[in-house]
Amino acid sequence: MPGNSSSSTHRLRVIIPELPSEKLIAEWWPATSDVDWIQAPYIENKPDPALLAGADVFVGTDFDTHMGAAAEALKAILVPAAGVDRIDPSAVPPGVVVANAAHHEAPIAEWVMAVAVALDHELFASDRTFRNGDWSQWPGRHGSYRELYGRTFGIIGFGAIGKRVARLAGAYDMKVIAAGRRPLPETKPRPKAGAGAETSGDVGYVNTGDFEYGAGREAMEKVLGGADFVLVSTPLGDATRNLIGEREFDLMRPDAYLINPARGHIVNEEALYNALVSGSIAGAAIDTWYVYPVGPDDAPRPSKYPFWELDNLIMTPHHSGATEGTRTRRAATVAANIDRLANGEPLQNVIDELSTI
Q1: Which range of residues forms the domain containing residue 82?
Q2: Per-residue pLDDT tens for 323-335?
Q3: Half-sphere exposure of 84 (CA within 13 A, CB side)
């Protein structure tokens, strides 16, 4: 039987994480095919590997060699998220298709612009001090604040999130410069009114009138050195782990901010802390971290460095994309792929480099 198809008489066995007690599986995962749902407690985002024996589909973000050894009948790994960096490629059994579900670019872009405003206008400092009767943030004592209007927003990683942020930054009348790993073949230069589109000698570099984009290391360094805000929105992989380190922070301007809703380990942990402590950058907003809870009750600090003591940092617990809309859209995509598998149809959003079919 092909890895992405199923016979019409076979009821798919699908492993899913436990739902809140008040939720119904049919409402949470709106598949229309006849499915045997197997709810399981996930520890460190993984179920007991023994539960995968005889399962056709695993729904989750993590997959390791213990799970792969047990999953002798597996046909699909459906990731209800965008990132697939926690799927061990060596663990995926033969004949298995891996597919993801993103749908988080809208809320993450909203979070990005929200923290950009909060950083630039020093909103949290103003709120905290003024509640305590301190007028130090009053312009008469603080001085003027900065504004987003006319500033430069830099984006490293120009996928769905980066492009969405570019649109929102443009609405603030900001200049947008972006860098990715490859040229954008679908991007055709569009001139501004009365002006021709410009290109440079950089590989894949283009000015569309709405944003400037370049591919490769040189383009990334241009973003780092030229932006007031630097957004990290690239996936985590071997090529991007510690992509932003001491050298990259040295390229940034001392009045610039780093914003990371992607993956913590794209930014070197020690280099980030040192840049914030030393003031080599003005500040940061970080949503993704280096240490996470394992179970429902533990509460580890998110880093071995005391970021929580810094007043030039906005910290959030990896919630920028965790909206009800994201969850609903992802569940619909996963459910549609379950139906496709049951009906012998090709799956959508297949990750070719992880699939073994």
Answers
A1: 12-103+323-342
A2: 999 999 999 999 9
A3: 21
